[in-house]
Amino acid sequence: MTTSSALTRTTLAVALIATPAAFAGPLQQQVPAPADLVFRNGAIYTGNTRAPRAEAVAVKGSKIVYVGNASGANRLVGPSTRVVDLRDAVLYPGFTDAHMHLSGVGAREMTLNLEGANTLADFLARVKERVDQARPGQWVTGRGWIETFWKPPVFPTRQDLDKIAPNNPVYLTRADGHASIANSAALKLANITRTTPAPDGGAINKDINGEPTGMLIDRAQRLVSQLVPPATEEERDQEIIKGVERELRLGWTQIQDAHGSWAEVERIRRLYRDGKLKIRIYKAISGPSADATRLIDQGPVIGEFDGRLTVRAIKVVMDGALGSRGAALLQPYTDDPKNSGLITTDTIALKSMLVNALRRGIQVETHAIGDRGNRLTLDFYEAAMKAVPVAERRIAAPRWRDEHSQVVTATDIPRFQELGVIASMQPSHAISDLYFAPSRLGMGRLAGAYAWQSFLSLDIPIAAGSDAPVERGEPMIEFYAAVARKDLQGRSGQGWHPEQKMSRAEALKAFTYWPAFAAFEEDQRGTIEVGKLADFTILDRDIMRVPEAEILLTKTIMTVVNGEVVYSPI
């Protein structure tokens, strides 16, 4: 059996191997019960520091029953055992995306995907193609554009869109999700004029004449987005299904889905019951909100659907994004001296929510990009922890998370360790944002930006993810970004701080063990050890050894969740 050459340079043979006749009769009692699945004859990285490499792994049901040499695994092969001959492929603990947005990934697959539009002309051409397919008056929506590589790197305007879409309302979200551009037709439907006040936590960008440019920042997006016709129930199902299928193809075995509602949870439950989802989902509920209060009141949902679905976290958004100048900074933006960013959450409601969540054992994860956003997050966490003594907490160490931890002052980094806060960071942000971060922040503040080694040197856990669909969401891009800290063409630049890059062992841990720890699952998954769940990512090359550039060429050969092969191209 051979693997398609378009997908991989290796061959991965799968066969059913019969037990030798010598094991019949009396000796059969001395042979352990046959395994369901055995992997052998390849490189295996366990992530277990006591035994970091192995020759073979055996699985029974959903659990790992053997890790060791090939001869030991061979004794577990029975008549119905599926044996995977790894050959040149390499097996790792199952990769986890510790921060992504599942419905957003699915919606990107189903709507106008503007990712990779590297010029304004390309951006407009893609939009025009979709507009030409639409009926007059029909909304045209999409996501994924970013002006970083445009010349000049400036936001598009409503006038740009009006030229190609005079008769259709157009609403297109920037890759980071914190800003959108709308054309005049959409602004008119939303009654947005030069006198329209921006909502708290949002901004309506204006030109030099005081007229709206069409750019809506953070909470101001709602003024237009609420008018976009909602997806049908079938379309919402497909967003989840297509998003999960994509993640499994890429080798992710668990996704930690930031944001959400109980309506989404019920949809995901139904799709699990229907057998349409195989990946693990660690789901967060958006807060402060009535849905977040419900989670606090009823307690966490842990390990539904054979351990695949857990809901035990509340997601808060403290500030905006750096690219759209919404990230909250302690000092003004270097390239926008009148602007210090936005605080986007209800801080009064947040205080009481944090106290109640801490008492009830609910994890909190807070989006924080700017140094002010990060400081406020730590301040609020610290105040809640002081208000609720350990004896009054359902979980003594709550493992609260700082999502992104993107720009942090040197004095605030040690507070993560003191408070037991996990840094949930996305390596690809460094290799995309560092094209514009120097102009936003100035060189001085870059010392605390994407500062992975500054956290790791203090033994602060980094749970690594992708933030898809803000970024592409591919594990090999994220791994490469962590260990190379260069762009996808191998380039670096002033202010990129290469000393902050991770070692390959640190990066592997950041995508396997630390996400499991961040989900309170380190005893169940994150490393390859006997008794743990059989979640594996199998790749066509050894990303712990190959040249940096070759990491980006690596393909997924197989994805295994709960001992089940859920993706294989052969």
Key descriptive features of the protein:
Diaminopimelate Epimerase, Chain A, domain 1, 20 helices, 9-stranded mixed β-sheet, 570 residues, alpha/beta, 24 strands
Task: Explain what you see.
The protein has 570 residues and is α/β, with parallel strands linked by helices. Among the domains are: 13-87, Urease, subunit C, domain 1 (Roll); 103-225, Diaminopimelate Epimerase, Chain A, domain 1, CATH 3.10.310. The protein is built from 20 helices and 24 strands. Strands 1, 2, 3, 4, 5, 6, 22, 23 and 24 form a nine-stranded mixed sheet that branches. An eight-stranded parallel sheet has the order 7-14-15-17-18-19-20-21. A six-stranded mixed sheet has the order 8-9-10-11-13-12, sandwiched between helices. Strand 9 (140-145), helix 4 and strand 10 form a beta-alpha-beta unit. Helix 9 packs parallel to helix 11 and helix 11 packs across helix 12. It is globular.
